[in-house]
Fold this protein.
Amino acid sequence: MSATYTATAKTLHWGIAILILGLLGLGFYMTGPALSPTKLQLYSWHKWVGVSVLALVIVRLAWRLTHRPPALPSHMPAIERPAALPAITCSTC
């Protein structure tokens, strides 16, 4: 079993995170300007980036279902292991 996540999993994870942060910023910004073609364009971008994030999340979930996560670190305290259990057990679902 691998000690780290795959490059694909990391790329999907961080790509989705960056897009969500961009959506958050765009969402706050686009509520300010008055109704105009520019504002409508911002809404369109926001919608399509959101749909793209949804598609990437579906790809990420499919990747996760077909690739087991790395084992928990041996130095992880026993009290923290139950909190990580859902991530481990979902790999077998």
In short: The CA atoms of residues 78 and 84 lie 10 Å apart.
